[in-house]
Amino acid sequence: xxxxxxxxxxxxxxxxxxxxxxxxxxxxxxxxxxxxxxxxxxxxxxxxxxxxxxxxxxxxxxxxxxxxxxxxxxxxxxxxxxxxxxxxxxxxxxxxxxxxxxxxxxxxxxxxxxxxxxxxxxxxxxxxxxxxxxxxxxxxxxxxxxxxxxxxxxxxxxxxxxxxxxxxxxxx
Length: 172
Hints:
Largest sheet: none
Oligomer: single chain
Number of helices: 10
Radius of gyration: 16 Å
Structural class: mainly alpha
CATH class of the domain at 74-148: Mainly Alpha
């Protein structure tokens, strides 16, 4: 699914509902971020818009932040294997080479997903568009020893990267 693009000037002029419709998807299943950021218009640049959206995330309580992290699908998880991901997540996982894994590689991802979820209580989030399968697997191994607080911060940082790329796809 290709989303319609909008200029920053057009985005700045939209009412709240249209603004959320245009960019509410950039944070996985969390349009509340765009809705809460809308009053800060106009944004002078794409970077300023991204920073404002991220500031909304970082200002949210931990409960909302954890819900945002939970909204992300497992990499090579059940939804991915069944073709049930959203358009953006599906394309991002495919770009990272996760759509053409061997049975052994799928098993490795599933083992890491289970270990990570058991340790932290939320899915492993990494900007798939900036990584390939080997670096993602290395990321699992490197991040599993982290504290819960470190992983929340790391996941939010990765979500910010994902959102920046998704934003650049729709705002011209």
